[in-house]
Structures are given as structure tokens and as C-alpha cells.
Amino acid sequence: MRHAFVVVAACLPVLVGAQAPQGERTANNAVFVELAGNGGVYSLNYERFFGDVGLRIGSSYASSSSSEPANSSSVSLTTFPILGNYYLGDENDKLQLGAGIVLAKISGHVSDSFDTFSGSAAGAIPTAVVGYRHMPRTGGFDFGIALTPFLSGGVHLSGGLSLGAIF
Q: What residue segments make up the domains of the chain, in order of their start?
């Protein structure tokens, strides 16, 4: 019995030191869907946390088409939001401040019985984030709501809602 006590006593500092200090983030990854935010209509995202800083990348694709006997049209939009975020606040509820770019490509095609037109454009659009994010430090349900303006040729206001998991 005495030997077991000595082993436990010798290991106790290691076991206590292995635990995360109160308030330190132990879940450093997030996956989430954002509706109507930086990615456009929606985006699927991954974010990695480094203390109070997060690096995010996402992807989105949306398309629409229409056709009638003599006319047809289609449009598609692909986006990749890439942002850096800084988080302020208590352990789980944060003010989110971020900036980055959205790589975007749009293409379209229109035809009728007389002509056919098609084209595409691609570019990088500056964007920002100011919002609230519930992000449990030990993992769990992730929720956010934010103002997500696009900063190209002026300020174009947008907002987003995000739902996902932190692990």
C-alpha cells in the first residue's frame, strides 16, 4: 500500500500539470456552416484557433438555370472566404473581429433564338467580420451571428449566421 501511495504522490505533479489551466482553450478546431455571410449564399468552413486568433477557410458553390423552348440561362458562383479573426471576451462568448478576402468566380450563359452570350469573372473581394460567437473552450456547439461587409467599390453590408461544432 505504501508503494502505491509513493507512485501516486510522484505522478501527481505530472497529472495536475497535464490539465489545461482554467480559461485556456482545449478545443482548437471548428467546422461550421455559415448562411449569408462572407461566402455568399452559404459556405462550409474550417477554422483553427491559436489562442485568441483564428484562421478560417471556407468554400461555397451555388448555381441556377432556367430554360424555355427558345430561351435558356444559367449562372454559377464559387467562393472561398479566407479570414483571420481575433476574439475578445470570456471563456465561451466572444466578440469576433476579423478581416480577409473572398476569392470569387461567377459565370453565366444566356441564349435565345437569335443570340448566345456567355462570360465569367474572377477576383478577390476584401471583407470583414464584426459579430458575436459562442465558442466553448472545451468543445461543443458553435453559434455565431455577424455583420460581414464586402469592401469592394464601397461598403456593401451583409450579415451571416453560423452553426457548427468546435472540437
A: 23-166
135 closest CA partner among 103, 164, 104, 113: 164
d(CA 78, CA 56): 17
Cell 461550421 locates to 32
Q: DSSP string covering 56-67, please? A: EEEEEEEEEEEE
Name the CATH architecture for the domain at 23-166. Beta Barrel (2.40)
Task: Name residue, grid cell 452559404.
Answer: 42
- pTM for this structure? 0.82
User: 50-92: per-residue pLDDT in tens?
Assistant: 999 999 999 999 999 999 888 999 999 999 999 999 999 999 9
Cβ–Cβ < 8 Å for 59, 37: no
Q: How far apart are CA 34 and CA 32, in angstroms?
A: 6
- Whether 44 and 60 have beta carbons less than 8 Å apart is answered as yes
